[in-house]
Amino acid sequence: MPLPFTPRNLLAQPLRLPRLRPYAPGPGDPRIFAFNTEREEVVRRVVKRVLQRYEANAAIERILSDAAYEEIRRLEKQKDTESRESLGSWRRLHRRLGQLSRSQKTAKLENLSHEAAQDIAGNFDPRVYELSRRLVPRLLTGVMHPARLVAEVRSSRSALDDLVEVQGDIHALRRLQRCGTLIYAPTHSSNLDSIVLGYALERSGLSPVVYGAGKNLFTNPMISFFMHNLGAYRVDRRIRSQLYKEVLKTYACVMIERGYHSLFFPGGTRSRSGMIEKKLKLGLLGAGVEAFARNQTAGDLPSGNRRVFVIPTTINYALVLEAETLIGDWLSESGKSRYIIEDDEFSRFERWIAFVRKLLSTRMGCVVRFGRPCDPFGNPVDLDGQSVAPSGQTVDPASYVWRGGQPTVDAKRDQAYTRQLGEFLALRLAQESVILPTHLVAHVLFRDLMRSTAGMDLFGRIRLRDEIRVPRAAFVSDVGTTRDRLLALEREGAVHVHDSLRQAPEEIVQQALRAWDGYHQRLAAHVEGSSVVAADPRLLLYYQNRLVPFAERLEDLDGKSGPAAREIQALGNAG
Predict the structure, then answer these.
(1) For the chain, does the N or the C end have fewer beta carbons within 10 angstroms?
(2) What's the CA gap between 31 and 9, in Å, rounded?
(3) How far apart (Å, rounded) are the C-alpha atoms in residues 51 and 375?
(4) What's the mean pLDDT in 371-397?
């Protein structure tokens, strides 16, 4: 007997591909629509390149030894079905490695690389893309508000359209995706990010992308169904071996070379603190630099001379689904060693329902902002994809990878370029951030908390639940003056301010308080009598951390908040 359709048991329903007509990619379709016809060739090329990289006998033995050692360590800790099935073979390889001939080591490396590439490689079904594009936003809204389900399905516009705002020069991106390969490099706050960004791309008339997703996310039947069929490739963050990392980076590189627009989260994992990422993971980002260099060496091949463009992108939420778990993880410092959180709010569908209902009721959602595109070396590009030097002169990016009159692939050189690109992106992500009412109100209240607890450390402060009270009139005035300084920073090009912050300070405060009311397990702040109360300093810390890079420039004119502002900005050194 089928389960009744309710939000709680929706994930228990078996998800199968609907009976849709077979799809044959046409000449005007996005490049990714043809991916399944090339998937095996992509895997073959990845394996071939990995073998070439470790073709020397000593290098093969070293990479195999590292793989065996790391997998034995991992599987011994897991003690699960995978461990029982695989641990013995890895132990045998580790014991017998020195006895294998060169050809046997090469064959083993090829087999392991092929297994890893097959496990990583994604899939794309244009039928599922069309289904998700037309129906999923409306069905999701219908789940949150069952009475609106019929109206949502019939409507040409979903209520979710009002929750995802897209900013930036979309026209430029549409032009650039026709003459090059786009790499979106966004901030990462939530496991919803890839879904939100995919929705923003589709709504803006931009091509879907391939992207890496943690393998743990594929255990969620609903999310797994769509990710598996819409370009996501699996990233198993439990595997630490150099061989796996090499296969993963090579896969990303080959996909860019072949013209598949891509998404990399340069922060690696979600920002536990809520801060804008400063220390970026450069591994996958370096695939863009290498792919550009390899395309330049391709000569008359289809990929030859194809440009690569990097798009600094920020995803800015008024509410973050997993905020409580993430800030708790950061404060406990387990975020330094724990890459996967198995039991956060993203894994509980009822929290999704509460989250989206709250966004719909408050009309506050998410802003996706696409910054100005640049080439892999940090030079901004114009509408025709031409790189522009600081002097205003156009520059040929191919000149960065030429040596002795010929384009070359040079790992050490490209690593230097990748570090340079990472530094550039860190600056641009801060500049492209969009500040929302919850960020501003949390910042002002947390600054007041720090100012009134001078000398206390951060961990003492976050225990002061419901203890710090600020006169409401003074607080609203402080929000107004801090907002005005934000607007001044916006005029300087340092940050972006959402239109919801251009209203009266009292309404800004009310909007933030309404957003927090009824979603998180605890209120971040609330009004009691004539005071605003810092109810949960942990949540205030999380939301205000979006403003950490600007804290000192937002302090009040009389200097009273100076020490607190400096303490807040110093949090960025640990973020």
Answers:
(1) N
(2) 36
(3) 29
(4) 92
Does residue 559 register a pLDDT over 70? no
Tell whether 442 and 569 lie within a shared domain.
Answer: yes
* SS3 state at 241: coil
Res. 149: pLDDT tops 80: no
One domain for residues 196 and 300: yes
* Residue ranges in 492-556 assigned as alpha helix (H): 505-516, 537-544
Tell whether 478 and 416 lie within a shared domain.
no
Instruction: For 188-235, give the DSSP string.
Output: ---TTHHHHHHHHHHHTT----EEEEEGGGGGSHHHHHHHHHBTEEEE
Residue 158 lies in a domain: no
- Owner of token pair 């809520």: 274
Q: For the chain, how many structural domains are there in total?
A: 3
Decide if 277 contacts 271 (C-beta within 8 A): yes
DSSP string, 176-188: HHHHEEEEEEE--
d(CA 81, CA 86): 9
Verify that 422 and 523 share a domain, yes or no: no
Q: How far is CA 337 from CA 330, 340, 344, in A?
A: 10, 9, 17
439 with 542, same domain: the answer is: yes
Task: Verify that 420 and 447 share a domain, yes or no.
Answer: no
**E-only strand ranges, 372-487:** 387-388, 394-395, 402-403, 406-407, 434-435, 468-471
Contact 121, 250 (CB under 8 A): no
- Whether 409 and 441 map to the same domain: the answer is no
Inter-residue contact 534 to 468 (CB < 8 Å): yes
Say yes or no: 89 and 201 in one domain. no
For residue 396, what are the domain limits? 164-209+261-318+365-431
Q: Minimal CA–CA distance to 443: which of 489, 472, 475?
A: 475
* Three-state SS at 490: helix
Question: What count of other Cβ atoms lies within 10 Å of the Cβ of residue 147?
Answer: 7
Flag whether 159 is in a domain. Answer: no
Distance, CA of 320 to CA of 9 (rounded, Å): 23
Local structure of residue 559 (DSSP, 8 states)? S
Confidence of residue 131 (pLDDT cuts 50, 70, 90): confident
223 inside domain = no
C-beta pairs of 345-348 under 8 Å, 24+ apart in sequence: 345/321, 346/190, 346/191, 346/192, 346/217, 346/321, 346/322, 347/220
Task: Flag whether 341 is in a domain.
Answer: no
Question: How many C-beta atoms surround the C-beta of residue 344 within 10 A?
Answer: 20
Task: Output the average pLDDT for the chain.
Answer: 85
Look at residues 123, 120, 109, 105 and name the one whose alpha carbon lies nearest to residue 47: 109
The verdict on pTM exceeding 0.85 is: yes
Token digits for 450?
A: 């720090």
**For residue 80, what pLDDT is reported?**
86
**Which range, of 94-108, 218-232, 273-287, averages the lowest pLDDT?**
218-232
Query: Which residue, 401, 431, 461, sits at the end of a domain?
Result: 431
Shortest CA distance to 475 belongs to which of 524, 508, 516, 514? 508
Domain C-terminal end among 381, 404, 431 = 431
Dmax over Cα atoms in the chain, in whole Å? Answer: 80
Neighbours of 304 (CB within 10 A): 13
Q: How many alpha carbons fall within 13 Å on the CB side of residue 417?
A: 25
